[in-house]
Amino acid sequence: xxxxxxxxxxxxxxxxxxxxxxxxxxxxxxxxxxxxxxxxxxxxxxxxxxxxxxxxxxxxxxxxxxxxxxxxxxxxxxxxxxxxxxxxxxxxxxxxxxxxxxxxxxxxxxxxxxxxxxxxxxxxxxxxxxxxxxxxxxxxxxxxxxxxxxxxxxxxxxxxxxxxxxxxxxxxxxxxxxxxxxxxxxxxxxxxxxxxxxxxxxxxxxxxxxxxxxxxxxxxxxxxxxxxxxxxxxxxxxxxxxxxxxxxxxxxxxxxxxxxxxxxxxxxxxxxxxxxxxxxxxxxxxxxxxxxxxxxxxxxxxxxxxxxxxxxxxxxxxxxxxxxxxxxxxxxxxxxxxxxxxxxxxxxxxxxxxxxxxxxxxxxxxxxxxxxxxxxxxxxxxxxxxxxxxxx
Length: 392
Description:
The protein has 392 residues and is of the alpha/beta class. It has one domain (2-391). The protein is 31% helix and 13% strand. The chain has a nine-stranded mixed beta sheet with strand order 3-2-1-5-4-6-7-8-9, with helices on both faces. Helix 3 (146-169) crosses helix 4 and helix 4 runs parallel beside helix 5 (215-221). It is globular, with a radius of gyration of 20 Å.
């Protein structure tokens, strides 16, 4: 597994970035590429990053399996020495069974090993970035909570490095796929936005699980994408239902189309190579159990956590990869060449989401994120006064 760590230097809000440079590091914390924070454009992969990926591909050898780039979500920190076990993705979702509970590890999902940690392979790139921050850093950036900071600043910054990683893979003779969960779906979505005009021809599939990316952003960023996007939706997910939109209020006002997220509301609309799979509707679970998938396999899916491997399993935000039946489906969506959007539709997959907002995101503008801490604080304060007045 190739380990990559994006280190975002704390520098306040974008208007304060100046000439601060973030760093993409290898597993030994050697610099692979620097990214000027204030430059929000696509950054072509530099020699260090290009060489590291080429060397890993050579060591991997000629293999039929795709290379899968893994993108984690909120509340991780691979950078700080001495970070708590749950903060370091390499001690959790990027960890090897049986050291890590197999139901929490993504490595069996991406073909890096089997469910018992046996038969190791070199199939995965673990992309990591800091997606949490303390109160002082969050406040300096102009936000009222760390999730706003992660959504509107940290994930888009990490997306620049992720876009460069995908671009560096474009010169390699391998098929590339992406697995992303929760806030990681925003990170890959923003990377695709940056890659317009540079999308690698060997990127053929992205699998999103319980995504926290906003639907309007996804509809814009993935429009006319030349690869498949399979979006796993769960409307029993309490994290997305209660947290993702409300924690971003008022930048994305609650109960508006701009606040809807892909893992709860789906996308629908006119994206040809996009399929929404809602785990918590009976027609999809029956279709999968009946062996109707293009690969001919039967899948027993359940949107509700079947065990408590995750400490807050009852919120159902992790059931997409902790339940064994769901794991089998995700593994097939990543590994099987038969599980394409075209073939899923040809086999009659139920690909709609029973949300009132479903399919209503085409053409909606993406709200602008304020760039200075002062603007952000004033906006948040004014909204709080308005909300307070409305309640009274």
